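Weekly puzzle thread! Below is a chain. First person to post its structure in token form gets bragging rights.
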Amino acid sequence: MSAKRTRMRSYPADKLPKGRTNWERVDAMTEEEIMVTSPPELADLPDDFWENAVVVMPPPKEAISLRVDHDVLAWFRAQGTGYQTRMNAVLRSFMEATATAPKKRKAR
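Winning reply:
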């Protein structure tokens, strides 16, 4: 593996990458319309809920070469855009499930 480090991109303020949110539509919505489309668990948040919020950046990903069975890769790719993110989520879920589970002893 190379010792090359991955760097975060920095963009000038006028050239930030665009997301998929239709901000013109959001800006045109009234507070009532926003409340109707919001999940019910957000309805009763106290007014000061976001006062101490902190943005937490996810840790950077590491590019690797991974050998995967053809049918497994084909299945993930068939799920559409973001298949690598889903593969990472499946691996993370397995890691967390097995890291917290007590080790099984082998019968002798």
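Puzzle host: Confirmed. Bonus trivia for everyone else. The chain has a mean pLDDT of 85.
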